[in-house]
Design a protein that fits this description.
Elements: H1 28-44, H2 51-75
Length: 76
Amino acid sequence: GCDASILLNGNGTEKNERDHPANFGLRDEAIQAIEDIRAIIRVQCPRVVSCADILVIAAREAVRQVIIYCCLNIYF
């Protein structure tokens, strides 16, 4: 499964968590969206927000987008 460690970068001797075979199903677009959210948050809250916090925000926004998409398809 995906947890916050997916956002940790390797240090040269260790691989990135996202390179683990269990995480190969993650789409590049999803990782990029999470990285974009991380960049926005770090501008507002440097050194305060954890990787877990970023994933919570990304998940919330994904659910929000699905709800908006479904509502638009039902009513329009």
